[in-house]
From TrEMBL:
Keywords (A to Z) from UniProt: Signal
Lineage: superkingdom: Bacteria
Organism: Prosthecobacter fluviatilis
Family matches, as InterPro entries: Alkaline_phosphatase_core_sf (IPR017850), Sulfatase (IPR050738), Sulfatase_N (IPR000917)
Official protein name in the record: Sulfatase
Signal peptide, first to last residue: 1-19
Length: 503
């Protein structure tokens, strides 16, 4: 055989290698705190988020994504577990005083790690509160390892105590800023966290900027051949309204347009708040959103330098939203769109189609979406479902309803949305809205006789959902008789008898 023939024969046999699976995608989950979808640039042109806009333009935007609970801790535990608050392995319906997510049920990072990934969470975790985690795990690093995490940098947000012990507090201490920042932050929380006032910390030392630098540095140190999954968890735009430096003046409050659901005046903590005050709050809130966008851009650049951005799966979402004056309310914890609906963008070049969808989905669906995209195996009994079938165009929906739950005492508050119609019940009564006709939820149709059938339908759908999503540790149980029959190769009761076998 001459050299030409040898080369041709190799070209014929080697395509098996060229057809081998490409390297697994890197994964970047961006989790922000208290970001209302009313303040996404594609819903509100006042918002300036160029880095996020690029991600969204390359991915699928889920315009009807809801949190499993419109408050921090239960939403974050749901993401970690793939379970609803009402499931037995979760059980957190609000921020708890003494709790830690069980590693037995908090399976997200373990499933990702089992697929061959380095796993990290940098920024806010909020999976624990009180002493319970220290009682179960003397070292917090042991808890993180039990969750399947290789690296954690837990920065909950602005420091409000000089006794706080984390890397950001130490960073401020080394700058000589810790005592002053802690005092000022404590004062904000006690007096009025919605007072719009620039942070004492300049932008380069702000907590989310610190977190994004830590994340970018971590990404830069990882070997390119080893697939990486990192959760970048930013505290912004969560109050206090302390956008630093130029971010505090980036938006002209007088030129901002408020949601039509914001009343002329409303009361909050013995204050009367009008449109001018609400615009001032909104301007600072939007400044924090733009800061978070710049932080996202820094981490994206780290993946670009790593050389994997072209095949990086990105999921951008929030734990819950922010009312920002809508219906005379601030903060979260309500079932209105501003609080219960959250942003969700899924981007994976070459697989995920660009566009928007109004199919109902849940924030915790990010977990199985990542696991499917990386070729992993989802732990059993998870209630979250992968969104890849929708994102890749294989189907138009993966669930009938999106559900949200919250409450610290009975009766607990529950919400259901099918993407157009939205129903919920809370301590104030029952609510029904047609989101297509009434996106700002101005007209409650629950008492309207012409919509009684839809009200009953969503009530029934909620009941079916609750019956279908309970944690059932008896699932798959076989009776002793059935097990014995199977061991003997005999037919199971109710099934067709096997040929030649006696009963």
């Amino acid at each position: 055989m001459n050299w030409l023939s040898l080369i041709l024969s190799l070209l014929i046999t080697v395509p098996i290698l060229s057809g081998a699976p490409a390297s697994k995608p890197d994964v970047l989950v961006i989790l922000v705190d208290q970001w209302s979808p009313r303040y996404l640039s594609w819903e509100n042109p006042q918002v300036r988020t160029p880095h996020l806009d690029k991600i969204a333009a390359e991915g699928m935007v889920f315009d009807r994504c809801y949190t499993t609970s419109p408050v921090c801790m239960p939403a974050r535990v749901s993401l970690l577990t793939g379970l609803y608050p009402h499931n037995g392995g979760h059980g957190i319906w609000g921020n708890a005083l003494n709790y830690h997510g069980s590693p037995e049920e908090a399976t997200m990072f373990r499933d990702i790690k089992a697929a061959g990934y380095t796993t990290a969470q940098i920024g806010k975790t909020h999976w624990t509160s009180g002493p319970s985690v220290r009682e179960a795990f003397p070292k917090i690093e042991d808890y993180h390892r039990a969750l399947g995490l290789d690296y954690v940098c837990d920065v909950s947000g602005p420091v409000d105590s000089v006794t706080e012990k984390n890397s950001y507090a130490e960073y401020l201490r080394n700058l000589g800023l810790l005592e002053k920042v802690a005092e000022e932050m404590h004062d904000r929380y006690v007096k009025w966290e919605f007072q719009p006032k620039p942070s004492l910390v300049p932008p380069e030392h702000y907590h989310d900027v610190f977190v994004s630098r830590e994340a970018a540095d971590f990404v830069g140190k990882q070997p390119a051949a080893q697939p990486l999954c990192i959760v970048l968890s930013l505290h912004s735009p969560h109050p206090p309204l302390d956008a630093p430096g130029g971010y505090a003046t980036m938006y002209d409050a007088g030129k901002l347009t408020l949601s039509p659901s914001v009343p002329e005046t409303f009361r909050r903590e013995m204050r009367t708040i009008g449109h001018p005050e609400t615009r001032e709050m909104l301007a600072n809130y939007l400044g924090k959103i733009s800061l978070a966008d710049d932080c996202i851009g820094r981490v994206v650049e780290a993946f670009q330098k790593r050389g994997t951005w072209g095949r990086t799966l990105v999921c951008f979402t929030a734990d819950h939203g922010e009312m920002m004056g809508a219906h005379g309310m601030l903060t979260k914890g309500r079932m209105y769109e501003e609080s219960a609906r959250v942003p969700l963008v899924v981007r994976l070049p070459g697989q995920v189609k660009a566009g928007h969808t109004k199919t109902p989905v849940q924030m915790f669906d990010v977990y199985p979406t990542v696991v499917e995209a990386i070729g992993g195996t989802l732990s059993p009994r998870r209630q979250a479902v992968s969104l890849l079938p929708v994102a890749t165009g294989k189907t138009t929906s993966v669930r009938k309803l999106a559900i949200s739950e919250i409450g610290t005492h009975s009766p607990l508050n529950m919400m259901a949305s099918d993407g157009r119609w939205k129903w919920w019940a809370d301590e104030k009564g029952e609510f029904l809205f047609d989101l297509d006709a009434d996106p700002y939820e101005m007209t409650n149709l629950a008492a309207d006789p012409t919509h009684l059938a839809k009200l009953h339908e969503l009530r029934q759908d909620m009941l079916t959902h609750l019956r279908s999503t309970q944690t059932n540790l008896s699932e798959g149980y076989k009776s002793k008789v059935q097990r014995m029959r199977e061991a003997e190769g005999l037919p199971i009761k109710g099934k067709k008898k096997a040929a030649g076998k006696l009963p």
